[in-house]
Amino acid sequence: MATKAYGAHAADKPLEPIDIERRAVGAHDVQIAIAYCGVCHSDLHQVRSEWDGTLYPCVPGHEIVGHVTAVGEDVTRFKAGDVVGVGCMVDSCQHCSSCDEGLEQYCENGFVGTYNGPTPDVPGHTLGGYSQNIVVNDKFVLKISHPADQLAAVAPLLCAGITTYSPLRHWQAGPGKKIGIVGIGGLGHMGIKLAHAMGAHVVAFTTSESKRQDALDLGADEVVISRDPDQMAAHADSFDFILNTVAASHNLDAFSGLLKRDGTLCLVGVPEHPHPSPNVAPLIFRRRAIAGSLIGGIAETQEMLDFCAEKGITADIEMIPIQDIEAAYKRMLKSDVKYRFVIDSASLAAA
């Protein structure tokens, strides 16, 4: 199926209109007309070859919301007209121990990304959500139950939402727990909302005093300016869990020292340059841990979407036409968005 998309033909070329082909609907496939696609920092890293192995043409986009237009003969969970989502994965080996446990994001043979992943489809790698349509194996399609007027703001839940929800659930954020969220951006703003909805006491960390009120409005109980040693020292040895969403290289010791005994500092951002090596003494003497977390499996992503629908949680977004994507990337690099750009896919018709 011929589909209009936006993609780049090289790392130093801008995104531009391109025509791509989607495969015919197979027995286990769901064909989706894309209504909205969130803009993730990963899109920029990949399309600009800031991550190794970018394949061109590159069509980014893995925060997809749309409507089912066709299903394969063996598909029973979806029908035409259903509102659905697609996140960061469109396939995995489905037989390793991680896949067997519903942890496809840790597939031992490598999950297939929604873009830049291996596929027998033309052109040999997956093409993402900056496009009008997509065809996805039904196991990797998610049901969305938010009301229609919230669908654009649901799109970032498929990456920013699950990236923060999964570690908060894994380390059991909830009533009686003191949870820190470092960084108030696309990921961090979702972390604050989710931890608050889970019933935890939420402390937001930011380098900017100007973000204090924003963090409180998102659901933080307290806000700490992380550049202020006195504010940081006031919270020493007090956190059960800190979720660090900052992707820039920085000193982790400032945060690991705030953990209780057995507390965990979890990283979800991959910095361009490695973090300075952490001091091990604060870890050893308090049995603290520094850990990482990657998105979530399909079952957990569905759980997150259902939780957000029940609690009325969406991302804070700014909608753009696809024609403004290069300007959006420039603004994203300056953190000039509250807090996630979302593409109105109807604009592709004019591409």
List keywords for this structure.
single chain; 351 residues; alpha/beta; Quinone Oxidoreductase, Chain A, domain 1; Rossmann fold; 2 domains; 7-stranded mixed sheet; 6-stranded parallel sheet; 11 helices; 17 strands; globular
Summarize this structure briefly.
The protein contains 11 helices and 17 strands. By secondary structure, the chain is α/β, with parallel strands linked by helices.
Structure description:
It is a single chain. The chain is of the alpha/beta class and 351 residues long. It folds into 2 domains: 2-159 and 316-350, Medium-chain alcohol dehydrogenases, catalytic domain (Quinone Oxidoreductase, Chain A, domain 1); 160-292, NAD(P)-binding Rossmann-like Domain (Rossmann fold, 3-Layer(aba) Sandwich). 23% of the residues lie in helices and 26% in strands. The strands form 4 sheets. Strands 3, 4, 5, 8, 9, 16 and 17 form a 7-stranded mixed sheet that branches. The chain has a 6-stranded parallel sheet with strand order 12-11-10-13-14-15, covered by helices on one side. Strands 1-2 form a two-stranded antiparallel sheet. Helix 8 links the parallel strand 13 and strand 14. Helix 4 (160-170) crosses helix 5 (186-197) and helix 4 (160-170) crosses helix 10 (298-311). It is globular and about 60 Å long. 47% of the residues are buried. The model has no long low-confidence stretch (mean pLDDT 97).
